[in-house]
């Protein structure tokens, strides 16, 4: 694994050699370390089951609901340990997670879903202004604001989930599989909005994504997980140009694009291990 460059400034998020165990038996993360600098979009890449979602839940401390725990290592947010913090306190401190599957309240309207994002800061001043700001980034939500969430599309669900997180005024968003189940055009639209939020609002992002191609196009830095370990990391462009990443995650090799039939029987070299 290539060495992570040591920036002059302190990272907004630093994970050092964490291990996660479920049910006191199942070891899922095996010494994962990564950093997110202020204002960065960092992609957490890997196949299904590699440990991406578990890493995000370790940061937001949602593991205990699934009988999981961080048993080794530490997680720092702005230099302070958070690996055993209350999830609601983390939201107040500026960390929000947009979970895989969006988890919108189906019986509430789009606008009511968005307003739930402001719960931890109270329904005081600035809420209407923040709601209008969300609508500037997601104009489609303004059109559907009185519609029941259960009757909106998958893309509108994803927009609602991200908008709900923005209502908490986050400094960092943990975004889990934003492309899942969406048409390519919608995926592009979601990532464009993420980039705009990062640039204009200075929100840092750590996003877990199986769609390596689009994640590396929009991210600044990337980490690749396999079997609960970081096996490669680097600048997004460097990873996108790497021959192993092209072959194993983008479906390209020196011999051209591999078909699914070829990949099924292909024994991976894993030169990075």
Structural account:
With 273 residues, this protein is an alpha/beta fold. 34% of the residues lie in helices and 26% in strands. It has helices spanning 52-60, 87-93, 110-116, 127-137, 139-143, 154-166, 184-200, 212-218, 236-241, 243-249, 260-264, and strands at 13-22, 26-36, 41-45, 68-77, 80-81, 95-98, 172-176, 204-209, 221-226, 229-235, 252-253, 256-257. The strands form three sheets. The protein has a six-stranded mixed beta sheet, with helices on both faces. Strands 2-1-4-5 form a four-stranded antiparallel beta sheet, covered by helices on one side. It has a two-stranded antiparallel sheet with strand order 11-12. Helix 3 packs parallel to helix 6. The longest helix is centred in the C-terminal third of the chain and has 17 residues, at 184-200. The N and C termini lie close together (8 Å).
Write down the Rg.
Answer: 19 Å
Please describe the biggest sheet, giving its number of strands, its sense, and whether it closes into a barrel.
6 strands, mixed
Please, how many helices? Answer: 11
The quaternary state of the protein chains shown equals single chain
User: Which structural class is indicated by helix and strand composition?
Assistant: alpha/beta
Distance between the termini: 8 Å
State which percent range the strand residues make up.
25-35%
Low-confidence stretches: 1-7, 258-268
Strands in their spatial order, largest beta sheet: 6-7-8-3-9-10
Which word captures the global form? globular
Number of strands: 12
